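Q: Two folds, back to back.
A: First:
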Amino acid sequence: MVVPLTTSSIRVLVVDDYAPWRRFVSSTLQTQPELEVVAEVSDGLDAIYQSQELQPDLILLDIGLPVLNGIEAARRIREVSPASKILFVSENRSVDVVEAALSTGAGGYVVKSDGASKLLPAVAAVLQGKQFVSVSLTNSDFSEPTKDPAVRITHRHEVAFYADDPSVVNGYACFIESALKSGNAVIVAVTESHRASLVLRLEADGVDVAAAIKQGSCILLDSTETLSRLLVDGTLDPVRCAQVVGDLITGAAKGVKGERARRVVVCGEIAPILVSKGNAEGAIKLEHLWDEITRGYGVDTLCGYLRSPFLSTESGPIFERICAEHSAVHRLGY
């Protein structure tokens, strides 16, 4: 339940580089008549400038921002708008990062996947001078330390375009084998037909798939079923995506064992299903959401598409937009 706000007009600056998330935050805040969203910005430097110009009462600030990350932006905002209260809203769950964020003098830290139920209570608490931290952070054991928590966690989000189904299976098999050999946990989300072929290929290469699944180092998912979990009324939902993907990653992290720094990696074809159904815009939106969510965890992802849907001249712009959502592009077979 939201604690009643007492100030008659509270001016809020929303800072996040993903427009649909900014819209969600703004619409949520606007359900409270006391709250007024005075501006939305998408990068750290602009957040500093707008804070200085507007002197907002409250700033909702993401961690992973272009140009300047949220933690460094918060430090500078403290200098130019010292009266502004800061609430971090991020999917990054690293304990080091959370501690660094709060060390800037911020009043709270909300995990994005908790946003639907916890954003307004967090805002109320921070405005009243209390500290608010998502409960999921206090219980989470996914907290890989970073050498410099003020720097965005490194991640990769790569895409490969394959000539045919056997090429897809081969590409995923190589990715999975490399991940397991390095001691990483791997999440695999593929179609039913590719899953059967992939298990056969891995076992032929000497991978004990059943043991890896039992140990939790390999999580094998059906891509169609996983996609359905990301939808609300048939449409991709940013909050649902953050929650489902976040839960998958934190669950997989429990399968990462050993003293060396290891990670969760992902390969799959969830967005490609949308392309195969003629929903290229949905695929692009999902790729963007995936990048936004996984970069907070430092996750490496390989997305695999069949090249056939992109061979026509008309598909060129879609192909380029999908490529633009990734940090590296492997045009296999082109």
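A: Second:
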Amino acid sequence: MPGRPYFTRELFRFLRDLKRNNNREWFVAQRARYEAVVRGPFQEFIGDLAPALRAVSPHYVADPSPVGGSLLRMHRDIRFSRDKSLYKSWAAAHFRHRADSQGMHGPGFYLHLEPGEVFAGAGLWHPDPPSQTRIRRAIVEDPAGWKGAVRSRRFLARWELAGDSLKRPPRGFDPEHPLIEDLKRKDFLGLCEFSQDQVCAPGFLARYVDACQRAAPLMSFLTGAIGLPF
């Protein structure tokens, strides 16, 4: 696996500048800089990640394509937002399950690079109600499998569960269930934090792959719960 650095502090400097100058004129003038320090390095990272991610699961895709690939667009969808900033002040990639190309919304791996906030994600954020119910039923039917996925030392050494939860137990589930706090989750999501120094270091690709490997039991549990292969 390549050990060279992909990202530099120039990426974070560009994103800070973009946050202060969030307008089309500035972005167009700085397009070459964006390509050199953000988009290009991120696409190279995604391309080199692809075989390692396939080793974690052959059903997950790291696609460096400039259009429709894993790298998320910098443009924001402002149609229904009070914040009319045109561009995101972060760079991110979403590594989706192959079933997503067929219209399904499966658990995914995620990488977020933002000044002062760098993290990986794994799981499902805001799943639809049928998926939430399937995951909750899977937790009830296989509590040992769930606990093995999210309570193991290997997982907890790098990850923590995050996201929103219901204030009350979900309808149709025992309020006294020993895993009721997990059953109340609305998001089934792990977060793993990194520092900017780690992102800019030569071994970051291996570090990110290690995080994905540690999250594999969670991803396997979630994909199985909603009827997808892992």
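Q: And?
A: The mean pLDDT is 94.
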